[in-house]
Write a structure and sequence with these properties.
This is non-specific serine/threonine protein kinase. It is an enzyme of class 2 (transferase). It comes from Amnibacterium kyonggiense. There is one protein chain. The chain has 3 domains: 88 residues, Phosphorylase Kinase, domain 1 (2-Layer Sandwich); 176 residues, Transferase(Phosphotransferase), domain 1, CATH 1.10.510.10; 138 residues, Beta-Lactamase, CATH 3.30.450. The chain is built from 14 helices and 16 strands. Helix 9 packs antiparallel against helix 10 and helix 11 packs antiparallel against helix 13. It is globular, with a radius of gyration of 25 Å. The chain has 462 residues and is an alpha+beta fold.
Length: 462
């Protein structure tokens, strides 16, 4: 039997969910509306209350094991997602049944792993019962959707990979293997893609233990499978490392390394190792090369991968800042916005060629980097306000105006960083009062960028 035929026998679900180019459906006519997908048994109607608590709002996604709904938790006043599984409810939670994903998620706890907040059973419209899982609502979508818009900077990918590898190391330490690490299972918490990405690895429904609980095919997604899985061998912790390596490579290139039909994608990794772009920094490329080695024994464990990727992101040539530094600056910017009632805020850190903008959360799409002389063009030691940027001839063509900023105020941040400022923004003309400026001064005084913080400060300007 050929390897291609073996793959087809081993992965029937994957073949159905990953059509190749020769299986693509013909394009729909312009005057035809696509038919809605057939309603699945696990799709709940809006308004349905699950677990006597969670009110279903609608369908977020339909996956291979169930339907994911958006929902609202009236007890804690928060949005959540409720995953209703297709398979019938199971009583024995130690078996790899429909609720296995919840069991795995409850076994380990890490910021990079999606936790299960609640679980139970729900009665479907046909009278049968199935399991449901309640999880955090991640506002940033998934990595697959993000990469469809643009690739990541290499340092963003390295920092993201370090966090995910830490989570996988904890999972592996508990004797578990994820088996389906892919961009669609990396859920983004940070909405603004220019900030450092905060993400969680989700979907533990295909995870297995160190000793398999039941015989059967090694499930997963073909495009991210390791060579030994393609050959029909059992997945190990190094299989997850390989898959994560392909995810990070796709993150910086913007395309899958092994595209095509199931056969083409599966066989390609047996013939060659992934191609690494020549412009990647040598340290980062070296880690990716080790993660995607053809044989499992040449791949480092996830714990080592996490250490090396973190060193790439924060060492010389990397631009990711220490968490404490960035969080301190952004938290202070958020406080400044709240005190002044502004819709956005940022810390401006100028250098010889421009200004770095560490923006606080807000709907204004403030640029991360301002080139040239920076802004505002006032004395760096003075507080300033601009009531209407559109009416100011000095800044009327500035990138901040294009981002929707119409009014702003700023004060200098004490320390040895000339020109460093704390700013607040408005999306409409506004006069910032003297009290607002005094509030800014009070927050900026807590941000002293003195010599004692020089090392962190210099690396915070990513």
């Amino acid at each position: 039997m050929s390897i291609g035929a073996a793959v087809r026998r081993m992965l029937p679900a994957a073949i159905g969910s990953h059509p190749g180019p020769d299986r693509a459906a013909p394009p729909a006519r312009a005057d035809e509306r696509p038919a809605p997908p057939p309603r699945r048994r696990s799709e709940l109607a809006p308004g349905t209350v699950v677990g006597a608590r969670y009110r279903i709002d609608g369908v977020l996604a339909r996956g291979g094991m169930g339907v994911v709904h958006t929902a609202f938790d009236p007890f804690l006043l928060r949005d959540v997602v409720v995953k209703v599984l297709d398979a019938p409810a199971v009583q024995d939670r130690t078996t790899r049944g429909a609720a296995w994903e919840g069991v795995v998620a409850a076994t380990v706890s890490h910021p990079a792993l999606m936790p299960v907040l609640d679980a139970g059973t729900v009665r479907r419209e046909d009278g049968t019962e199935t399991d449901f899982l309640v999880m955090e609502r991640m506002r940033g979508g998934d990595l697959h959707a993000l990469l469809a818009r643009r690739p990541l900077r290499w340092d963003q990918a390295a920092a993201l990979g370090a966090e995910l590898a830490e989570g996988l190391a904890l999972l592996h330490g508990a004797g578990l293997v994820h088996r389906d690490v892919k961009p669609a299972n990396v859920l983004i918490a940070t909405v603004d893609p220019d900030e450092r990405l905060r993400a969680r690895l989700a979907d533990f429904g295909t995870a297995i233990g160190a000793v398999d609980l039941a015989p059967g095919p090694d499930l997963g997604t073909v495009a991210y499978m390791c060579p030994e899985q393609v050959r029909g061998r059992r997945a190990t912790d190094r299989s997850d490392v390989y898959s994560l390596g392909l995810v990070l490579l796709e993150a910086v290139t913007g395309h899958r390394e092994f595209p095509g039909s199931v056969d083409e994608s599966a066989l390609a990794r047996l013939r060659r190792e992934p191609f690494l772009p020549p412009d990647l920094p040598a340290r980062f490329a070296e880690v990716l090369r080790g993660m995607t080695a053809t044989t499992a024994d040449r791949r480092p464990p996830a714990e080592e991968v996490a250490r090396r990727l973190a060193a790439c992101a924060t060492g010389p040539g990397g631009s990711a800042a220490p968490d404490a530094t960035l969080e301190r600056l952004r938290t202070s910017a958020t406080l400044a916005a709240r005190l002044t009632g502004a819709v956005g805020a940022a810390v401006l850190l100028p250098d010889a060629t421009g200004t770095d903008v560490l923006a606080a959360p807000g709907h204004l799409r403030v640029p991360r980097r301002l080139d040239g002389d920076g802004w505002p063009r006032t004395h760096p030691s003075a507080a300033w306000t601009v009531d209407d940027l559109a009416a100011d001839p000095v800044v009327s063509e500035h990138a901040l105006l294009a981002a929707g900023v119409r009014a702003a105020a700023g004060v200098p941040i004490p320390g040895d960083r000339p020109g460093a400022m704390l700013c607040v923004f408005e999306d409409r003309p506004r006069h910032f009062s003297g009290q607002a400026v005094r509030d800014l001064v009070a927050v900026a005084s807590m941000l002293d960028l003195g010599a004692g913080r020089a090392a962190d400060r210099d690396r915070a300007t990513d």
